[in-house]
Write a structure and sequence with these properties.
The protein is α/β, with parallel strands linked by helices. The protein has 4 domains: about 190 residues, Rossmann fold (3-Layer(aba) Sandwich), CATH 3.40.50; about 200 residues, Rossmann fold (3-Layer(aba) Sandwich); about 80 residues, Arc Repressor Mutant, subunit A (Orthogonal Bundle), CATH 1.10.10; about 140 residues, Sec63 N-terminal domain-like fold (Orthogonal Bundle). It has 26 helices and 19 strands. Helix 6 links the parallel strand 5 and strand 6. About 0% of the residues have low confidence. The structure holds adenosine-5'-diphosphate.
């Protein structure tokens, strides 16, 4: 099937052909046969690089009105925004928080790219453009199974269909164990395929050589100890680069990524002086300097502790082949498109709160799926580095195994409270039956008996009534507090923590900026900040000296460690508003530049929310939320 024969304008056909897209890939042809250009719903569960973007574009370009493309991460929103912006005659908007088009009404665009949180927030705030949507594409729909953002995604899809009845839905998924359940939930046709434009072989390395699932073997030239995972990873990465390819190496932690990159930088794998000076110019932090030093030798590290501008520079330089190697934490696999000839997964376990745990199969498959660049590599190779004792387990867990099932996480009481409040505050429902009716369109309801759903909803409503966020009369309605919490897009738990803080602060002699920061940093919506053992005593001492500025007594809290972490975040942000430099804070508090960046951004959001919530609470603590937000 040819692009030329599709119902697209000549300009669009030219656009695709100029990018080498003339004949459809098999999964794309299957999508057209299933009616993607005629408004049919579908779920495409196909491997990475098999051309999902074109399926999405076909759905949006042939729809009878505006399209929305929902992504899980901001970095992906930016990537898709850039791709769609190149389509001739198509206006594109983006909504991710840090990249909003100022003043422009999103509804005026043909295509809007947004994170699921932004779409949820737009629905709660009654945005008009939602009702006009003709087509919604959901990227990485398998993430409905993820603990953090899964519930938001499924409730968003349920409420979207209320606001825009009859909207066409196209969902793109990684290969998972139960795609038919997702398709059934969305009332969509399932396209399932294992076809890839570049062959992929996956194998396990142990004791000096790697064996692949196609029966082939590879014995890299190892300078060090063949039993040592790092020596083996070094040899596998270097071998790919020596053959003219690029390599991605996945390790378990930020520090490991940096250490491996620094080691590989000494192996003569390349050089990228221009990118190095670009990175050096972006900031003068210690991390930035070390990254630039590695990049100068053609190798980068990539993790969540980096500033987003550094991550973008690394991704771009890898895509245009200036950089030969990236050493990354697993987050890179779920993010932007950075394919490589060879993927080396050195670590398959990582620390969780309770020890070392194997990574989920799906996550490792996503890393491996990055191997093989269409049009550039003859094949892709993914190697899991093991030893004699783990070889069999690695085969069983990751090479031979199917990925996990996708399961709804909406039964989590925190998630359910959040969404029940939002359904009531947005006036989608004013009764228990109404709430159940809205939730009926979720993935959770799809697999759960109604009776069970009824009882968890009852619990959520009772909790929200107790928190003063829902009023129970002849019908259910949000209180002023509940309404503000929902519109500010914070969780009910965060709202309740802010209310408690405001009440305590109202009784304090002289609450300060630190008081306001402690309140917002101690909410579940603020990220945790790592508190090392060496720092602990110092932080304890700081907390004691400032005890009369805090709304939590040192011996009152049930989670002292968690609170001390919040104190650390508050202290870092206080330093920032008082004018300390990012480089100074990063060094003094041993956090990544990217951690500081994300804390500042979250604090700005939470301070705005706290200011709005203060208007609904009869406790005049007069805290400087607004002033702090401006100074951030
Ligand atoms: P993914 O499924 O991972 O989203 P993409 O849509 O990004 O994959 O496609 C991967 C690459 O394949 C892109 O470079 C894209 O331009 C190219 N591509 C997609 N469809 C075709 C096609 N039909 N013919 C040739 N190249 C294609």
């Amino acid at each position: 099937m040819r692009v030329r024969d599709l119902p697209l304008s000549a300009a669009l056909v030219d656009h695709f052909e100029s990018r080498g897209i003339e004949e459809l890939y098999p999964p794309q042809a299957a999508a057209v046969e299933a009616g993607v250009t005629e408004g049919e719903r579908l779920v495409a569960a196909v491997p990475t690089a098999s051309g999902k973007t074109l399926i999405a574009e076909l759905a949006m370009l042939t729809a009878d009105g505006p399209g929305l493309y929902i992504v899980p991460l901001r970095a992906l929103a930016r990537e898709k925004y850039e791709t769609f912006s190149e389509l001739p005659g198509v206006s594109v908007g983006i909504s991710t928080g840090d990249f909003d088009e100022a003043g422009e009404d999103l509804g005026e665009n043909d295509v809007v790219v947004a994170t699921s949180e932004k779409v949820d927030s737009a629905i709660r705030n009654g945005a008009d453009w939602i009702a006009d949507l003709a087509c919604v594409v959901v990227d990485e729909v398998h993430l409905v199974g993820s603990e953090g953002r899964g519930p938001t995604l499924e409730v968003t899809l349920a409420t979207l269909q209320r606001r825009a009845p009859g909207v066409c839905i196209v969902a793109l998924s990684a290969t998972v164990a139960n795609p038919e359940e997702i398709a059934d939930w969305l009332d969509a046709e399932l396209i399932q395929s294992t076809w890839r434009p570049v062959d992929l072989r996956t194998g396990v390395y142990a004791e000096g050589s790697a064996t692949f699932d196609d029966g082939t073997e590879l014995a890299p030239t190892i300078a060090g100890d063949p039993e040592d995972a790092t020596d083996a990873a070094d040899a596998l990465v270097s071998g790919a680069v020596d053959d003219g390819g690029q390599a991605l190496a996945f390790v378990r932690s930020r520090r490991e990524a940096e250490t491996l990159a620094e080691r590989l930088a000494g192996s003569g794998l390349g050089s990228a002086p221009d990118v190095a000076s670009e990175i050096r110019d972006l900031d003068g932090s210690e991390t930035g300097r070390r990254l630039a030093d590695c990049v100068a030798d053609g190798v980068a590290f990539h993790h969540a502790g980096l500033r987003s501008t550094h991550r973008i520079a690394v991704e771009r330089a890898f895509r245009d082949r200036t950089l030969r190697v990236i050493c990354a934490t697993p987050t890179l696999a779920a993010g932007v498109n950075v394919p490589a000839r060879r993927v080396v997964v050195r670590d398959q376990r990582r620390y969780t709160g309770s020890g070392m745990e194997w990574l989920p199969t799906l996550e490792v498959h996503q890393m491996c799926g990055r191997a093989g660049r269409p049009h550039l590599d003859p094949y892709g190779e993914a190697v899991l580095v093991g030893d004699a004792s783990t070889r069999d387990e690695l085969w069983e867990r990751y090479v031979d195994a199917d990925p996990e099932r996708v399961e709804s996480q909406l039964a989590d009481p925190n998630a359910l409270r959040t969404h029940v409040l939002s359904v009531v505050a947005s006036e989608f429902a004013a009764s228990r039956e109404g709430i159940l009716d809205v939730l009926d369109a979720t993935f959770y309801a799809h697999g759960t008996p109604t009776r069970e759903l009824g009882s968890v909803v009852d619990t959520a409503v009772a909790d929200l009534v107790e928190m003063g966020m829902i009023a129970e009369g002849a019908s259910l309605s949000a209180t002023d507090l509940g309404d503000r919490v929902s519109k500010q897009y914070v969780t009910p738990e965060t709202g309740a923590r802010i209310v408690a803080g405001l009440r305590t602060a109202a009784g304090m002699d002289a609450p300060t900026a630190l008081t306001a920061l402690e309140i917002v940093c101690d909410t579940p919506d603020m990220q945790d900040t790592y508190l090392g053992n060496r720092e602990r005593a110092d932080m304890y001492d700081f907390a004691r000296r400032h005890a009369d500025e805090f709304t939590t007594g040192m011996n009152e809290t049930a989670d002292f460690e968690g609170w001390l972490t919040a104190v650390k975040t508050a202290r870092v942000l206080h330093g920032w508003v008082e004018g300390a430099s990012a480089a100074d804070l990063v060094e003094r508090f041993r956090i990544g530049p990217g951690d500081l960046e994300s804390r500042i951004e979250r604090a700005a959001w939470l301070l705005g929310a706290a200011d709005a919530i203060a208007g609904a609470v009869e406790a005049d603590a007069d805290l400087p939320f607004r002033d702090l937000r401006a100074r951030l």
